[in-house]
Amino acid sequence: MSTAAITSHGAHAHEHARARVLVTPEGVSLPFVIASRSSRAGALILDLVIILVLMVATTVALVSIAGGTAAIARSVTESGGAAQVFEFLIVAWIVAMFLFRNAYFLFFELGPRGATPGKRIAGIRIAARDGGRLSAEMVIARNLLRDIELFLPLVFLASAGAESGPAWIAATAWILVFPLFPLFNRDRLRAGDIVAGTWVVEAPRHKLEAAMTVLPQAGKQTEAGRGYRFTDAELAVYGEYELQTLERVLRQHRADAIVPIHEAIANKIGRQDGTGDERAFLEAYYTQLRARLESGMRMGRRKADKFAEEP
Amino acid sequence: MSAAEPIDAIRAAALRSDRFRLEREADWQRLEHIVTQMEKGRLRRISDEDLLALPGLYRTVASSLSIARETSLDAATLAYLEALVKRAWFVVYGPRSSLGAWLRGFLGGGWSRAVRAIGFDILVALAVMVAGTVVGWLLVASDTEWFYTLVPTQFADARVPGASAEALRGTLFGQSERGGLSVFAAYLFSNNAQVSILAFALGFAFGLPSLLLLVKNMAVLGAMLWLYHGAGLTLDFAAWIAVHGTTELFAILLAGGAGLHIGRSMAFPGARPVLQAAAEAGRRAALVMTGVVLMLVVAAVLEGYARQLVDNTGGRLAIGGTMLALWIAYFLAVGRRRDEVRA
User: Fold this and answer.
1) In the prediction, which pLDDT does A224 show?
2) Chain A from 106 to 125: CB within 8 A of any B CB
3) What's the start-to-end Cα distance of chain B, in Å?
């Protein structure tokens, strides 16, 4: 059940080919963004590198243990104990390699973050496509297919020999179908996602920023800002998009951006004051513009951007 | 931070939407703290009150988000709330059961129900496996050259057409002194598990490669069977295979059936959308496959130890037959009651 619907937020429409909306059981619609193919490829490469490092480290550790055992066995006597230790080490190695290959993804994706270390670094996670609970079966199914998607061409080539033409053709065809599967569908699903009913979404984290109208060090600036009064006509020029752009600039505390923006706004609304006191001017304008737009919202009137007609 | 400070801040906020936010942000931050701890897997560090409060806090913050969307134009706060509700949603609706609880449900009926649900596909896979064995036998019987084509060279040590009955008997019996049994068992498990994962995963291509893989593997068995039959060792060979084979071939049968199940539901989704059909079949097949890996562990232990240690045909047949009976009984009987409730 794919309840996903494309939404478009006017000015940001370009990044919303990947936007999907999911409605929680509480009736809150949550916008999700499908993870980009590049972040998924990056996450996969990171995970494969981590697995490789783990495999090499385990092998080195076991070999050095085996070497130590051999040395002890030589120095004491020819005992049968050493052979049993070797046998155990080889078993441990085979089991460890099997687990690294098959259980790494399972272990991490079943955890509360729903993401392997590579996915976490890339800021993405897996989720159930129908908006329901992510179940263990889904995680198992999507990871059982990973093996053939990635490694089967290598098996072809290994068994047929690198000189074999048909093996290369088969491997190429395989790569065109499976690893590149996410290139050919809208939701960036790979074969494992289709079979499991999952998809990979962005998992952003945001810190709670300070409230704009009570910025901690802005006490006196707000006082000063109260000195600037804007008429309704001066405020009617801009809409929500410009307001939120202004918010971004003010939050970033970048002095070099403030001056040109003050100039642009002052020109647009026909004010000459505020030069040398740009920040206070812009904060006052921001506060009054937001108050005006928000009171419009409460009446059910919204103005998306400066091109929108005043309702 | 003194207690009076936030209240002053609320009064100081010029905008109604900022006052709304300052009144509620303590709840938001409490939820964020709980969610962060849960994401880190530190469940023990969360107090009981916090755990009890989680569902309520989640609903509170979700409703804060709904209100903020209608009343506030503070983009940073909206982004924060959206991300927080999403994270909380993943925690509240995330994988609920612990691995232990999941395993109990799995062994106590989830697995056998999934196996029964794909019964038809398993029957088809069984027919294909029998056909593969027969084909292997017939090919080698018509022309012994086929033997070398079918059987990988690693198996064909003494076991080649024209070998004496004595030599063949030697491959079946008298290897109980061989060391390294556990290594052998571990290797067998790893290898067979990878093969059965392959048989399952190939089901994605509408199940056909799964079937081909089954035919190819069973043809080897057919060829071997012909070889030992010629030396009058049919029963001994069958017993030698049966010790682990009833478990291992059963597991491969299930893996092939699971692959076929996915392939079939994608080729013939019926009234459902293809993606939905594939996802439903995939989840069912994943349950079966988890069990297949467990069966292969059992099979490898039987093959590595039991076959080498029990050196007579009667004992081997008894072990193999018992395992087969146990598996069939398990799949047919366990988890029946909930079947009826669901039906």
Assistant:
1) 44
2) 110-114, 125
3) 60
Residues of chain A in contact with residue B285, where contact means CB-CB under 8 angstroms, are 141, 195
> What is the signed CA dihedral for B16, B17, B23, B26, rounded to 10 degrees?
-160
B15 or A41, higher pLDDT: A41
Joined together, the tokens standing for residue A71 give 């040395």
Contact B265, B277 (CB under 8 A): yes
Q: What is the mean pLDDT of residues A122-149?
A: 84
Domain ranges of chain A: 37-202, 212-298
Spatial CB neighbours of A250, under 8 Å, sequence gap ≥ 6: A212, A258, A279, A282, A283, A286
- Mark yes or no for CB contact A197/B83 under 8 Å: no
Q: What digits encode the pLDDT tens for the residues A207-233? A: 887 777 765 444 444 444 457 788 888
Residue B152: C-alpha distances to residues A44, A111, B205, B300, B336 (Å): 34, 41, 26, 20, 42
Task: Tell me whether A26 touches chain B (CB under 8 Å).
Answer: yes
Say what the alpha-carbon torsion angle B328, B109, B339, B252 is, to the nearest 10 degrees.
-40
One-letter amino acid of A219: G
Q: Which residues pair with A31 in a beta bridge?
A: A21
CA distance B238 to A31: 60
The token pair at B21 is 């936010």
Q: What confidence score (pLDDT) does residue A9 get?
A: 41
Q: Look-up: residue for tokens 């801040």? A: B9
| Chain B CB within 8 Å of residue A240 CB | yes
The verdict on a CB contact (< 8 Å) between A203 and B87 is yes
* Residue A193 neighbours by CB distance under 10 Å: 26
Coil, helix or strand at residue B94:
coil
β-bridge mates for residue A125, sequence order? A201
Q: How far apart (Å, rounded) are the C-alpha atoms in residues B265 and B297?
A: 29
Nearest by CB to B193, from A98, A135, A291: name it: A98
Name the A residues in 41-100 with CB < 8 Å from any B CB: 83, 87-88, 90-91, 94-95, 97-98
Under an 8 A CB cutoff, do A203 and B82 touch? Answer: no
How near does any CA of chain A get to the CA of B234, in Å? 32
To the nearest 10 degrees (0 to 180), the angle between helices B16-39 and B48-71 is 140
Spans of all domains in chain B: 4-92, 99-342
Query: Does A286 score more than 70 pLDDT?
Result: yes
Q: Supply the pLDDT for residue B329.
A: 92
- Predicted confidence at residue A4, as pLDDT, reads 38
Report CA B80 to chain centroid distance, whole Å. Answer: 38
Burial environment of residue A99 by CB neighbours within 10 A (0 to 12, 13 to 18, 19 or more): middle
Q: The pTM is what?
A: 0.75
**pLDDT for res A112:** 79
How, if at all, do strands A29-33 and A19-23 pair? antiparallel
